């Protein structure tokens, strides 16, 4: 992960940057004057950790969204590298082309084979273009489904990593059936005979997220969001202005805490103090623990029962009132 | 010129009539003497059956609503299929307009206290009193040329036919009903997408309904998805595209992303006919396109083919 001065700071992380700058100054002074400043530097380093804790303790929903998009935040490939062994990446949907916004392949978790699939964003300007900012096309969803069916055939659990601002809304995506591709994935995922664990590791926007998001256990990392539309688009449609994204983020109740409270996700995965971007190793270790525990809960179930419970789990989602039946005659 | 005619699909999802009025006043509006334009309104039509005129948004042909109704709301001049609601579809499809509606007791509530320019509860109350509808989908069981079937049909005028918890729950119970009574299932879609005021709960309806279709499939019961103008977003990304047969009315606009969003993304004009039924058929996503006047017989033929 990047170290200062290569770290990037969001606006609300600026106090941390200031502390780093102070450390730099002290180091320079120490260099020049040959005075030992390690005590003062240590104090500032502790202050940085405290500041990280302080900032994430009081984030608004919109800031949480910003954190989920932090340019230094680890993506799917990083977690695969840090959590799993013997990863063999598999490419293509066998139909149109290889979508680089969606990656996946066989790997081992704690020595056991799993199929891992996830959205992938680019880590620099050139790669961001190549990965299409994590916005998959239909062939990405179809590649994901191909890998899931492969896992099912060989009775291997599936782990998906969700991190997308949405499925790509392009002309060719429509021609190739973006809706159908996502619908097919959602449908097939409800009936997969193997254990499925889905983790929101960054952005969980709408159908593009759910297209690899139906499973027996849904985990959500602490600084991520998951809902039906991005706060920006929601603002533009419902408030008819791009300026209400903060309010939209509040109204949408899109944080991990909200989602866990609603029973729409099963577990919140803790992140390193200040967010996953501060320590990739720790972030991956925390995630690995959560995924391993979740898998332990479901892997020995009878496949039919597991599928039935998966369908029932989603069938319970929703809220409505029921009127007394006699008052419901059609007018 | 084409630009002006393009409808902003997403704005139907606000449930805000002012927005719809602005967006659509030039286009798809019924015009009534002295009254503001609205799409089809079952309730209003009942009140003043003779006082309604409608102009075809495609060819400007003017006819009385009564005449148009006899044509099953299809323009006699250009075959444009006007947008109609569940009441009209049920009347067109079920024998002698006889059917039993199911699950009317399930109604939306503002569980999240969602507030944009208005609060969600207020929107629900307003739209209910304006339309006599309880939500954006109704389910009915009855006979189509003597073949029994369950049909779920959306009402676009109820917050853009949006998919929320109520539609999901009605869909789910309709599937259970089909399995219990061994009946085929048909869904008539007409929707801008998910109901944003229900946030992630609305998104989860995609998984909920798809899971139920998986059970319907295991029971070997046919599921027909009829897509009508317009069908977008969460519907096309779930049960809309999951039919054993996916069929559509002619000229219906169907897609995942709305035309406005796509245009903003690619920064180009969209080709003629893009996202129309004919375009989807050409690209392999529909089994066939069916004229509304032939729909009833086609459905009963299909039920026969599935069951024999
Ligand atoms: Zn016409």
Salient structural properties:
heterodimer; A: alpha/beta; 2-enoyl-CoA Hydratase, Chain A, domain 1; 8-stranded mixed beta sheet; 14 helices; 9 strands; B: 308 residues; alpha/beta; 7-stranded mixed beta sheet; 4-stranded antiparallel beta sheet; binds zinc ion; Acetyl-coenzyme A carboxylase carboxyl transferase subunit alpha (chain A); ATP binding (chain A); fatty acid biosynthesis (chain A); fatty acid metabolism (chain A); carboxyl- or carbamoyltransferase activity (chain A)
Any overview of this molecule?
The complex is a heterodimer of chains A (331) and B (308). Chain A is α/β, with parallel strands linked by helices and 331 residues long. Chain A has helices spanning 14-33, 38-57, 61-68, 76-83, 125-130, 138-153, 171-175, 178-190, 206-210, 231-238, 245-252, 256-261, 280-298, 303-315; strands spanning 85-89, 102-109, 112-119, 158-164, 196-205, 217-221, 225-227, 267-269, 321-322. Chain A folds into 2 domains: 11-58; 66-315, 2-enoyl-CoA Hydratase, Chain A, domain 1 (Alpha-Beta Complex). Chain A is built from 14 helices and 9 strands. In chain A, strands 1, 2, 3, 4, 5, 6, 7 and 8 form an 8-stranded mixed sheet that branches. By secondary structure, chain B is α/β, with parallel strands linked by helices. Chain B is 36% helix and 19% strand. Chain B contains 11 helices and 12 strands. Chain B has helices spanning 2-5, 17-24, 42-47, 65-70, 86-93, 120-131, 165-181, 199-218, 259-266, 277-282, 292-307, and strands at residues 30-32, 35-38, 52-55, 62-64, 99-102, 106-107, 137-144, 147-154, 185-191, 223-231, 245-248, 288-289. In chain B, a hairpin with a 6-residue loop joins strand 3 and strand 4. In chain B, helix 7 runs parallel beside helix 8 (199-218). The radius of gyration of chain B is 18 Å and the shape is globular. Residues 22-48 of chain B have low confidence and may be disordered. The interface between A and B is large, with 63 and 69 residues. Strand 9 (321-322) of chain A pairs antiparallel with strand 6 (106-107) of chain B, so a sheet runs across the interface. Zinc ion is lined by residues 56, 58-59, 61, 75, 77-78, 80 of chain B.
């Amino acid at each position: 992960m990047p170290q200062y001065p290569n770290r990037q700071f969001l606006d609300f992380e600026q106090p941390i940057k200031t502390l780093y700058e102070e450390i730099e100054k002290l180091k320079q002074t120490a260099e020049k004057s040959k005075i030992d400043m390690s005590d003062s530097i240590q104090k500032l380093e502790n202050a940085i950790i405290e500041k990280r804790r302080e900032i994430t303790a009081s984030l608004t929903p919109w800031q949480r969204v910003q954190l989920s998009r932090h340019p230094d935040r680890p993506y799917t490939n990083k977690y695969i590298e840090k959590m799993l062994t013997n990863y063999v990446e598999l490419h293509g949907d066998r139909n149109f082309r290889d979508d680089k916004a969606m990656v996946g392949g066989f790997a081992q978790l704690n020595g056991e084979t799993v199929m891992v699939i996830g959205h992938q964003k680019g880590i620099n300007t050139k790669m961001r273009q190549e990965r299409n900012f994590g916005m998959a096309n239909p062939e990405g969803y179809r590649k994901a489904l191909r890998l899931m069916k492969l896992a099912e055939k060989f009775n291997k659990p599936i782990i998906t990593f969700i991190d997308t601002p949405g499925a790509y809304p392009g002309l060719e995506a429509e021609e190739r059936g973006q809706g159908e591709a996502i619908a097919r994935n959602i449908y097939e995922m409800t009936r997969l005979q193997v254990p499925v664990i889905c983790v929101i590791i960054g952005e969980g926007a709408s159908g593009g997220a759910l297209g690899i998001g139906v499973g027996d256990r849904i985990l959500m990392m602490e600084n991520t969001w998951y809902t039906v539309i991005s706060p920006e688009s929601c603002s533009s449609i419902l408030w008819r202005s791009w300026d209400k994204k903060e309010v939209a983020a509040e109204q949408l109740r899109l944080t991990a805490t909200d989602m866990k409270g609603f029973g729409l996700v099963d577990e919140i995965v803790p992140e390193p103090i200040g967010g996953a971007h501060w320590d990739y190793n720790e972030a991956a270790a925390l995630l690995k623990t959560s995924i391993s525990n979740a898998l332990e809960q479901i892997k020995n179930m009878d496949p039919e029962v597991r599928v039935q419970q998966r369908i029932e789990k989603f069938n319970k989602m929703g809220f409505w009132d029921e009127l007394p039946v006699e008052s419901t005659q059609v007018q | 010129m084409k630009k002006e005619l393009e409808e902003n699909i997403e704005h139907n999802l606000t449930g805000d009539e002012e927005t719809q009025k602005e967006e659509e006043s030039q286009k798809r509006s019924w015009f009534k003497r002295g009254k503001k334009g609205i799409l089809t309104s079952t309730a209003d039509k009942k009140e003043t059956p003779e006082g309604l005129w409608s102009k075809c948004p495609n060819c400007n042909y003017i006819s009385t609503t009564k005449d148009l109704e006899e044509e099953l709301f299809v323009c006699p001049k250009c075959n444009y299929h006007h947008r109609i609601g569940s009441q009209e579809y049920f009347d067109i499809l079920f024998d002698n307009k006889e059917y039993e509606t199911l699950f009317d007791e399930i109604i939306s509530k503002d569980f999240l206290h969602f507030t944009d320019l208005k609060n969600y509860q207020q929107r629900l109350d307003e739209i209910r009193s304006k339309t006599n509808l309880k939500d954006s989908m109704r389910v009915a069981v009855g006979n189509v040329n003597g073949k029994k079937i369950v049909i779920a049909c959306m009402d676009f005028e109820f917050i853009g036919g949006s998919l929320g918890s109520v539609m999901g729950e009605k869909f789910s119970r309709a599937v259970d009903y089909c399995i219990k009574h061994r009946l085929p299932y048909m869904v008539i879609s007409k929707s801008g997408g998910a109901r944003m005021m229900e946030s992630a709960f609305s998104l989860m309806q995609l998984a909920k309904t798809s899971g139920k279709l998986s059970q319907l499939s295991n029971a070997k019961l046919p599921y027909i998805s009829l897509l009508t103008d317009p069908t977008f977003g969460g519907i096309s990304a779930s049960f809309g595209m999951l039919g054993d047969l996916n069929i559509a009315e002619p000229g219906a606009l169907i897609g995942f992303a709305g035309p406005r969003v796509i245009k903003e993304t690619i920064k180009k004009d969209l080709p003629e006919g893009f996202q129309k039924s004919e375009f989807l058929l050409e690209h392999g996503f529909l089994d066939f396109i069916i004229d509304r006047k032939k729909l009833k017989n086609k459905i009963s033929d299909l039920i026969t083919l599935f069951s024999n």
